[in-house]
Specification:
The chain is an all-alpha fold and about 300 residues long. The protein is built from twelve helices and no strands. The protein has helices at about 55-80, 90-120, 125-140, 145-165, 170-175, 180-190, 195-205, 210-235, 245-255, 260, 265-270, 285-295. Helix 4 crosses helix 6. It starts with about 55 loop residues before the first helix and ends with a helix. Residues about 10-20 have low confidence and may be disordered. Bound molecules: fe (ii) ion (FE2) (2 copies). One fe (ii) ion binds next to helix 4.
Length: about 300
């Protein structure tokens, strides 16, 4: 695998004056992401090959996303850590530590999950390598402000996926019971830390132009790469012409119940100057999911 390129210390921070703005955050007081360290067991011979709803499209969609987590989450951590020393608010400093701890453990568990799937013949290593190459390109070529804006944008996507899809609908119930807890745990923590990168971005005076334009780019690149990787995995599995699986997944995402269609209004709220991740409070869903899926790790 390619080596990770560090964020260059000599990168110019375009568009930032250096003054740290005191912006009131809407993050609830005391909302410090809790670092849990669960260890999931994937190495079971009887795990169905298509562990979400016995559907190759649904399963390989999550597999393709899982391939992106280890390089992506390391990038998120580094983009926040770059500005950590400039943060003076003690609560936000604690939240950064929680964010880093949670994302680091997500990477670790998804590496295990990806290794398990790789052993089953799902070639996620190639995908992971490609995504790492793209992350390294961003590390070398984008300003630290834009790299943080990238994290802010993707964190909004992951919070939407976590709260308004995984925790709200019955996706977790449709998964193999050994696979569901890892996705439930990841979704819970994505919701808990959804505002950390955003609050750091506001605290360092990150520009609205960069925040919004980066979301526009992410909105093109993320679905494009995910669909491309899903199609490649489907072809490698010999499932590309499985019309029934494609049709039922498309219907699930965009028709009935239309889980992706229904999260579009929340997605567009990101473009408002008044946007804050905690304008949408999903703590009731998170509490229910913690009780149901996390057991002793809650
Ligand atoms: Fe994560
Ligand atoms: Fe995250």
């Amino acid at each position: 695998m390619n080596a990770i390129v560090p964020i260059g210390p000599n990168r110019k921070r375009k568009g930032i004056t250096g003054a740290i703005s005191a912006v009131a955050s809407k993050t609830p007081k005391g909302m410090i992401p809790q670092v849990r360290r669960p260890e999931f067991e994937f190495n079971t011979d009887d795990m169905p090959r298509y562990w979400w709803d016995n559907n190759p499209v649904k399963t390989l969609l999550l597999a393709a996303m899982s391939a992106g987590f280890p390089p992506g989450e390391r990038f998120f951590i580094d983009s926040v850590r770059y500005f950590e020393k400039e943060i003076t608010d003690p609560e936000l400093k604690k939240a950064i530590k929680g964010f880093i701890g949670q994302e680091a453990h997500h990477s670790r568990e998804h590496e295990m999950l990806n290794g398990f799937l790789q052993d089953k013949g799902v070639n996620l290593a190639r995908l992971e390598k490609e995504i790492l190459g793209f992350m390294n390109w961003m590390r070398k070529n984008l300003s630290p402000e834009r790299q943080l804006a990238h994290t802010v944008a993707v964190e909004h996507f992951t919070a939407l996926m976590a709260e308004e899809f995984l925790l709200k609908y019955d996706a977790l119930e449709e998964m193999d019971p050994r696979m569901a807890p890892v996705w439930a745990w990841h979704a819970v923590e994505e919701s808990e830390h959804k505002a950390v990168a955003f609050d750091v971005y506001k605290a360092i005076g990150g520009s609205e132009f960069t925040r919004v334009t980066e979301m526009m780019l992410v909105s093109v690149l993320f679905p494009f790469f995910t669909t491309m990787h899903l199609t490649q995995l489907m072809r490698e599995e010999g499932q590309l012409s499985n019309v029934k699986a494609w049709a039922s997944t498309l219907n699930y995402m965009w028709g009935k119940p239309g889980v992706f269609r229904k999260l579009l209004p929340s997605y567009f709220k990101f473009y408002s100057p008044n946007f804050h991740p905690w304008n949408h409070d999903a703590r009731d869903l998170v509490e229910k999911a913690k009780k149901k899926w996390l057991g002793d790790w809650a």
